[in-house]
Amino acid sequence: MPAVQETVEQVRLIDVDQYKYGFVTDIESEKAPIGLSEDTVRYISANKNEPAWMLEWRLDAYRRWLTMREPTWARVDYPKIDYQNAYYFSQPKKKLASLDEVDPQILETYKKLGIPLQEQEMLAGVVRPEGERRVAVDAVFDSVSVATTFKAELKRAGVIFMPMSEAIREHPDLVRKYLGSVVPVTDNYFATLNSAVFSDGSFVYVPPGVRCPMELSTYFRINEANTGQFERTLIIADKGAYVSYLEGCTAPMRDENQLHAAVVELVTHDDAEIKYSTVQNWYPGDADGKGGIFNFVTKRGDCRGKNSKISWTQVETGSAITWKYPSCILRGDNSRGEFYSIAISNGRQQVDSGTKMIHLGKNTTSRIISKGISAGKSNNTYRGLVTAHRKATNARNFTNCDSLLIGNQCGAHTVPYIEAKNSSAVFEHEASTSKISEDMLFYCRQRGMSAEEATALVVNGFVKDVLQQLPMEFAVEAQKLISISLEGSVG
Amino acid sequence: MNAEIRGIKTAAEQGLATAFAGARDTLPGKGAVAALRDDAFKRFDAAGLPHRRVEEWKYTDLRALMREAKPLAGPADIRKPADIAAILSGVDATLVTIVNGRLAPEWTDKNASDPGITLLELFAFLAENTDYRLGQMPGHGDQASLLNTAFMSGGVGIRVKRGAAERKPIHIAHVFSGDTAAAMYPRSVMIVEPGAHVTLVESFSGPNGIDYQVNSALELVIGDGARVDHIKIGYDGDAALRISTLGVTVGAKAVYKDFSFTTGGAVVRNQTFARFAGEGIDAFIGGASLLKNKQHVDNTLVIAHAAPHCDSRELFKTVLDDQSHGVFQGKIIVEPHAQKTNAKMMTRSLLLSDEAEASQKPELEIFADDVVCGHGATAGALDPGLKFYLMSRGIHEKEAEALLIQAFIGEALEEVAHEGIRDDLNLAALRWQGARG
Question: Is the interface score ipTM higher than 0.90?
């Protein structure tokens, strides 16, 4: 059945021509020479004062990249990217020693985006209500991190939260141990490119037994024209640790396409948990499909330890093209992977996104909840893999994906891959609204709800539960999306 | 995804090229048919055998599974097939026998009893039906389909007119008969005129221990308001490699039921390409496979809803024992104007062994906003709770398992409308279980 009016209006509010973050910050920046070569890689590495091993690592990746081909299997269509006609590194000219020295223009930018970079602002309230969330922010502006807040307080807890470039210098052992261990250098075309030219990103290490005292967050902003952003994030939760991490992204409106090829690696040891949330709102291009960000991102979590857990939550509204599959490798016994996603496409956006749940250990469980909404002339594809290997005894997966179309010029697609190589694995995939849990549905229906109301209640309750844990600055946007009704959804 | 695609041909691809060069002038059909062959082979040769990087063949890597191209079975190879009668023992059907890729008139019913059916050798049929354009069916561009078009050696052309409400099913029996392995490429056409009813069984069988190869194709055109039940039975020999393509176009208000039953063969792929061209179609496409040893069976379907108000249901069940590999790939495409489409696709795999493997990809591609489409997929072992229930009532473990397997496969088999055929297939499932021990 068609979408209800309320949903249509909600989606209209976030249509491509309503993009609020399209302004440009006018500051001087220095860039690497245009194009990509070994010299570009050396320039980036030298600029960051990296040790020799890091440069070698990058050069190795670059050489591998030259032998690779751009993948074509995703359901997206875009003009050929000219990798030689882009800047791979751009940073604001002034070097910074502390937050006070940050260019006021940049501070203004983040203020406009609603991201607090001043700790005192966060603390300014007369009395902070008990349990109020605080968020430490790492702000990445083009290729560099411009500010990281609450560093001192986190340090007291033993948590390392710093830009990747600093971590390479200050904690080389940790970085060397984990970098590329989840997403290998040669993983895929865009990940390899990232390995060669990544500029900054966040590094998080939570020591054993520590529950990170606040939410960590990185805010990515592309400002410079014709510049790609290649950030690299690495989060490690040691035994029994917990951390919740959030990421947000925006970019100015520009007529040319810009490439964003990030790599995110998560590692959880025994009993550890990482919750990773994204609100992706890159510039989606205009109504005719001109401009916008190509968001080609590799995100993967490795549940290395027993009883560990990784949860991905994503709210995707931006980017001209999205190509991203946050995945979980469930290696440790009893480990758990979760993926909750809401992807909304408008205008001529193309989304090909989903997840991979790779069950390797015993008694591993995973859950996938995905909601795709397409409007305008967009195409929105869910692509997900669930696989249980020979030794993944008692692996369990539950997948539910719903799509909703608004108008008859868009497309909604579902491409699940389900591979069971172990007879004790139980996989359930459903895209219809018929069978979530018969018990739950029966309970609701017994109390007078229609099957659809009951299903919507159960699924929405599910998603809401997760999204409500997003901190304030993301909550407004997320809330808007939650209110979109499930009514009229198709599998 | 990043590997360089090299221009080096595999031994099988080279063998196919040599075979085509050698057979090109002697294969039946001149003029347009010869041009069709040349074009098809050229297109096949450009991409070669499909492999795991070709999305549609992701789980059935022909480059790895088809190591060599067997020599083409020649016209002289028509010899008496073994027990065709055993294939559909309980059913009185009009028999059409295709041995080693060619129609065998000696074992084909002349069919005088039903004037509503005309039945001719494929190339004779094409000569009489000059307005029929061969090779334009849905799925004609698929690599395996192109290979059939290049090498097609014969088959049958059938036209079904509106006629007797109760008509005998037509049984096209494809048989491999020989002592050494060969390749056969049968191609058939069936045109069902508006309002006509027919049940068509296609069976595939051959001896164990010979690694013969079959690449068959059927073009099926279903007229408005017609009803067609198509049942494909795979009883191939245990070393055989078979790929069967069905390209079907369905007219308005037609009822179309398609069922693929597979227990035989080493490597089997049933691929169905359906196009719902008219409004108000009621369709079911399903299948059941029972696999053991190292069997690899792939059921792939692509259904294009090109008209509004059509219903389609898909249900595929696979039982996997030993080291077998079951593949299901289903794609439902709802085109922009196909509003009010109602499509439901379900695939279930039952794994009886820890070494068996189930790969399932139920896919939806939707371009219309007022439709109800759903899909589901499950994979798992026998429910220990159910087994316990039966055992607690005094049923032996093996027997309890057998009951549950039969019930699992039975849900799909129930969709076969013809009682005699359904009974035969149920018996075949029981025989499969009996052999399992």
Answer: no
